[in-house]
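Re: the multi-chain job from yesterday

Posting the exact lines I submitted so nobody has to dig through the queue logs.
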Amino acid sequence: MAELSASILFADVGAVATKVGLIDVVAGRYRIVGSTRTMSTVGAPYEDVMVGVRQGVMQLQALTGRRLLDAQNALIKPVRADGDGVDAFTAVTSAALPLHAVVIGLSRDYSVSGAQRAVNSTYAVVDHTIAVDEESGRWGTTARDGRAGGPSASVEKLAMLKPDLIVMVGGIDGGAVAPLREMANIVAAVGAAMDESQRPLVVFAGNREARGDVAERIGSIMPVRMVDNVLPALEQLNVGPLQAEIENIYRERQVEKIPGFDKLAAWSERGVMTSTDAFTRVAEYLARKYQLRVLALDLGASQTALIRADGAQLRRAILEELSIGYGLEQLVDQVGLENIMRWLPAPFEAREVHAQLLNQAIHPTAAPTRWHDLTALNAAGRELLTRLTRVWQDDPALTLMDSDLILLSGAPLARGSKSTALLLMLLDALDVRGIFSVAADPFGLAPALGAVAVVNAEAAAQALESDGLVTWGTVFVPEIAARSGEPVVLNVRVQPARGGRLEADVKFGSLELIPLGEGEKAEVEIRGGRGVTWGGEIKGNMFKREVQGGTVGLMIDARGRPVPVLDNAERQREKIQEWMWEAGA
Amino acid sequence: MIEFIPQIPETRVATAARIRRARRLPVPGEVSGAIGMRIGAQDIIARAYPPKMRRALSLTRVIGVTEAEVPRRLLKHVGDTVEAREIIIAKPINFGVQRLVYRAPEAGQIAAIQGSWMILDLFGQPYDVPALYRGTIVAVEPREGGIVEAQGALIQGAWGSSAPDRAAKEAVGVIKWLAKEADAVLDADQLEADARAAILVAGGGVTEAALRRAEQVQVGGIVVGSLAPELRALALALPFPLMVTEGFGDKPMCTPIFELLTALNGQEAALNGQYAPRGPHSARPELFVPLAASRMLASDTMENERPHVAPRARVRGLCEPYLGQVGTLPEEFWLKWYGTESGAYLPAVEVEWEHLPGERHLVPWTNLELIG
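And the result, structure tokens for all chains:
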């Protein structure tokens, strides 16, 4: 077995920021001995990601006193006798632009929605969908009574687009082939009408019996790739192979086109992973090691990712072009300013909030320093998360309610929002219930550590747990039957392991923050009033268990679910203010 | 103290800059420019003929022919041009007494036929790519466009009204100051007929009425310090380019841009409204005034005159409460940790803001950009 690398330099090249860090052995354990954050240099005037990476490495040299670059600015590898250099380098990136895709299929509810699910879990945007079963005359009106029929509006829209990718789906394996031949003719005609240099790549993930016909009709015009059917049999969805193929295409067509990518890849023996793939590995690792149902969120400057891993299954959603950085312009357009405003605790001037969000989109590197600017950004974050969770609405079996650990990474942490303010944002927007822990990736290193695991899994795990993640604490969200009528719904008794005792009555509709520091444990007993349930393994309305504290502590959320939103704007503001006060936000 | 000072973003505001800009067609076409060719701003260097509309037809649905029948019923073939009302396909009906036909709705060209599907391109207007920047063609990309090198005054904006997925909004016209205070707002009554084709400048913002009037008068473009956020959608919809130098809200134009635009008043300029903030082909809106040929430097003598992080470097705030404010870095400066009102600790630097002479204020390093 090859010797594992002891010192590892890692880089995360984002659309806005480039993070560089160094892992080495300190007192017998792998630790992050330093990390830096610099501006990404993917766009003009630099157009070379290595400018930002080298800046980060130089900053790291100054921070650690260790030489990592030689006189020619090349990486010193492996480690020299004098301790300079590193044994390995790993890199992740989220700086590439997304793929633009069109999905065309036979059935909106089955194959098209399955394909959309695959696309939504990758770095791709669905610009248009066509489902044959959606309406009669989908392919245009039919000739009748001696009069010619008309054109197809949906195919005309496809013909005017310039997608990178057309995903063709439809039929179960062994089913009818004729409708897919027709579909292949449409795609071939649209492709043939385009200039050869602009033709998209076609991925066929439908009835495998139709592969020959599809290849025959399309293959001579544009490249076609065949993957396993997304719907091999009725009620059997199989999106994995399509998802994997789209990820390959994304790497080939977008990631490798990042200016300076070849130089970055040359530094890294194991290639360059996408940030979300690497972050997914972190979520899977935590789910497997601690047998948890993990909900991981990455609120990036250019995209937003939601990952759910429970050791057995993995689901992922990526919102491209909606984010709390560059994507704020589109977010305001799509969700509406009024929906963002309802999460603000004071009568903020709508015009000022709108201007601030648009200016943040122009300058995503900027870190707002005023309370009300950050509060407005976090209000937008709530609507973003709400939109994100809707991506999974097509799968009623998948619920976020039963997560054990929420892991947050991304721009809001880098901007320095208070952890209590961000925790409240998560509780307001995500419909997670029961008892769960919350951890954060305050330096945004978790995705990069996911790639480090490829060269040294132990180093990645130890660095992640020692220096990468910060535990915020434990959250308790009971289900409360509406209008319980009782002023006090929860009686909470906390007995910290260090001694002492705390008791609190929590009223319906309120939050309670109980301090319990990082690394501390406490015995918590909660007795609920009538109508209170906890779900999961806890039967009845009372339980007692040992929980962990964190930088936030213990948060009891007795507001009921979904979090109530009042029609009266003034009352809503008062409520938000009350909740922020109670949560220490 | 933090020893290493990383790079920050920059905005170019320069009286003499050498720039290279790619000028590309949205779809492949013909490139008329050649390497070394000197070109004027309005000279066309590439032309394409994108269809106005693509008609997509199932011929089975249109006249009831089967896929196998299509070839022998067609009267026109792939690549053929058709006139409006010209018959493309015909099928005899009623024992051959009558014909069911499909006629071209407008003049166009048959772009593709596959099985029973036909794509008919309806002719649109030619799409021309002008040089926009008066200078020299230094590279040609066959069928796509070329790269133009030019020297002149350059002002980069913060936001522009030309989105990457829509037709480019660009203009060449004379710079005309209409609201000549750093915070003056351009209103409709200031727009007379002589504003046609001009690039109008206002130090502050612009009213909705002025934007609508500008469309009627057919101005070339508008440059403002800031734009009311509620007018963003209108600006995106209007046909002319609008460049915002500071951002959204009520921000006066910053001093360096205000002063340079004042000096350039009356000169012919190119305004490019493109705003693509992300990715390898990111682009910012900009106003460019070419230098007189006699003042140009030879191509191989050009230095890199971009601003650098250095003592007395001019910086601009990117975030409230300093958004759009201009200041300088002190003679000796370093980064140190700074606790913000919101509770964050960020690397910060002391800045001497021009509007607060004699004072130094700690500002997070990430909230600054170089300007110059």
